[in-house]
User: Which sequence fits this backbone?
């Protein structure tokens, strides 16, 4: 087992506009965010893989007093949601461009089986970048 | 994620003593202001020993839980700092912190210590002084009132520091995403989900009003009247009770409290020799997930529940009484369905019909629940266990549920990550 700076490389990747994940050497599942081992099958070894930074929005939640993050508001309206990355792994993310009206429209479209594309938006959070998303399309 | 299976305990373990302080807000309270963590934990511990009919010298080992002792109590290894309050100087002990799940993990640790054969009589529980913070370097009885400016930055600590805090932002979706999934899946209107959430708060307050240990005891009928409303539900829907997240109103969030609760466990065959009716801990399932995992509370609850049902052989229809750590009140409904206590997609109707109230046929959180009983973070789970044992003994007085519970399910949750699924059963 090699001692490796996984977290540091992930954040260095964001500075270069790249999204790094890991791929399980046994089951092939993508491990994101990147860790040493596979959390899908429990195998001990993974390898680096660059991710597309694109995915599909599955849920939409707007911020409120108990969930707001002041670091994000300078980027404009934002919210939260589950995103399934093109590579198949799902996680919670910050999503920019969400408003109450757009939430209503998007929830309805998602409920109707439409796929809502999102792409990476790398945001300066004060000395490092955050991997967030924004909508592929202008929702009206 | 991967899945676990739990083996049988090497010997049966039962709770045979419980003790608890009230959940308080000591700020400005002439009777309680100045209380310290050692005093509240010591009081709960000695009350549990009194209940069991034993003395401190009989307890071989103890666990001490608090959600965040460095923040709330300006100390590390607080187990050593409370030991002398209960005559246990020099005894072996462990401190642990699992945020709001601490009090449930407290039972798991004690049970495993006895089930293994290492100890026969073990004390465990939790304490938190959560309405204030230490006042600099002054002694423990000097505290200042906590504010949201203190607590919100601290909440971020429960998310993974390597990645989650930069990926999901703040505390992210909280409980809203599971509620959102429920509403979408079962087609509830905005009014239906809102009424369901405030009805749970309403019935929690009805129970708390009858519970001398609860923090908020004024019935909503009175609160409504004081604010110019004849109907408590109209008050609960009003701007006096605004939304603080996508779905939750103020009354759907738990108020912080100061307090402690403890219990004592022993091998069941030994527990019979003491003065109370033993309550056996049949099993405890466990699952932990980080904030960044979608639907983490639902997923972890399902996993821990599967484990404990498989281990014990208990069926959901055998559950007489349910406790859900509902510091965000949606958890009460959602987890009740996830553990099989209420039918999927139908639980909200049970709530609206009053069936999940303490005097209903599917009682949940008979102590008032977090939103009325209060939330002394690391102590809350232990307070639920205190109430469960009280109900199972038939000692809850005016709050006693209609059918004496033989089997109780307790779903602990906290820190965004930790879940425990506990099944208790009265020993015949």
Assistant:
């Amino acid at each position: 087992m090699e001692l490796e700076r996984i977290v540091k490389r992930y954040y260095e990747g964001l500075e270069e506009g790249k999204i790094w994940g890991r791929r399980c050497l046994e089951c092939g599942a993508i491990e994101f965010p990147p860790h040493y081992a596979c959390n899908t099958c429990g195998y001990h070894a993974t390898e680096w893989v660059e991710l597309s930074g694109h995915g599909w929005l599955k849920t939409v939640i707007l911020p409120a007093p108990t969930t707001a993050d002041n670091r994000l508001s300078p980027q404009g309206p934002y919210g939260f949601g589950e995103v399934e990355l093109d590579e198949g792994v799902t996680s919670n993310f910050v999503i920019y461009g969400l408003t109450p009206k757009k939430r209503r429209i998007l929830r309805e479209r998602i409920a109707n089986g439409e796929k809502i594309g999102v792409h990476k938006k790398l945001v300066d959070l004060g000395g490092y970048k955050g991997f967030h998303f924004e909508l592929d399309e202008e929702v009206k | 994620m991967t899945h676990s299976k739990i083996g049988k305990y090497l010997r049966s373990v039962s709770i045979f003593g419980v003790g608890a302080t009230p959940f308080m807000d000591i700020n400005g309270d002439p009777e309680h202001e100045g209380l310290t963590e050692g005093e509240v934990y010591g009081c709960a511990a000695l009350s549990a020993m009194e209940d069991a009919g034993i003395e401190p010298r009989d307890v071989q080992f103890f666990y001490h839980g608090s959600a965040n002792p460095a923040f709330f109590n300006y100390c590390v290894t607080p187990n050593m700092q409370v030991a002398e309050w209960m005559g246990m100087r020099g005894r072996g002990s462990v401190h642990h912190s699992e945020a709001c799940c601490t009090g449930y993990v407290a039972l798991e640790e004690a049970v495993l210590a006895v089930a293994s054969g290492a100890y026969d009589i073990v004390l465990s529980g939790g304490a938190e002084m959560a309405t204030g913070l230490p006042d600099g370097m002054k002694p423990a009885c000097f505290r200042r009132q906590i504010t949201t400016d203190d607590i919100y930055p601290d909440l971020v600590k429960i998310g993974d520091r390597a990645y989650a805090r930069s990926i999901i932002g703040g505390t992210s979706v909280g409980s809203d995403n599971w509620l959102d999934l429920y509403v979408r899946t079962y087609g509830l209107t905005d009014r239906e989900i809102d009424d369901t959430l405030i009805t749970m708060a309403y019935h929690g307050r009805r129970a708390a009003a009858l519970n001398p240990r609860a923090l908020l005891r004024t019935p909503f009928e009175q609160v409504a009247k004081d604010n110019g409303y004849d109907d408590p539900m109209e008050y609960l829907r009003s701007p006096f009770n605004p939304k603080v997240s996508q779905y939750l109103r103020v009354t759907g969030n738990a108020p912080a409290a100061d307090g402690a609760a403890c219990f004592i466990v022993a091998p069941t065959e030994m527990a019979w020799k003491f003065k109370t009716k033993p309550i056996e801990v049949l099993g405890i399932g466990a699952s932990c997930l980080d904030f960044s995992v979608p639907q983490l509370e639902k997923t972890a609850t399902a996993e821990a529940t599967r484990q404990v049902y498989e281990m014990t052989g208990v069926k959901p229809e055998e559950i007489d009484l349910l406790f859900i750590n509902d510091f965000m009140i949606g958890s009460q409904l959602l987890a009740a369905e996830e553990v099989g206590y209420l039918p999927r997609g139908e639980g909200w109707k049970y709530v609206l019909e009053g069936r999940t109230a303490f005097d209903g046929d599917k009682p949940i959180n008979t102590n008032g629940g977090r939103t009325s009983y209060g939330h002394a973070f690391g102590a809350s789970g232990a307070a639920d266990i205190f109430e469960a044992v009280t109900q199972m003994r038939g000692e809850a007085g005016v709050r006693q549920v209609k059918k004496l519970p033989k089997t109780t399910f307790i779903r602990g949750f906290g820190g965004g990550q930790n879940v425990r699924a506990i099944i208790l059963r009265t020993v015949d």
About this structure: DSSP finds 16 helices and eleven strands in chain B. Chain B touches chain A at residues 1-2, 162-163, 166-174, 176-177, 180-181, 184, 243-246, 248, 253, 291-295 (CB under 8 Å). The radius of gyration of chain B is 20 Å. The longest strand of chain B covers residues 258-267.
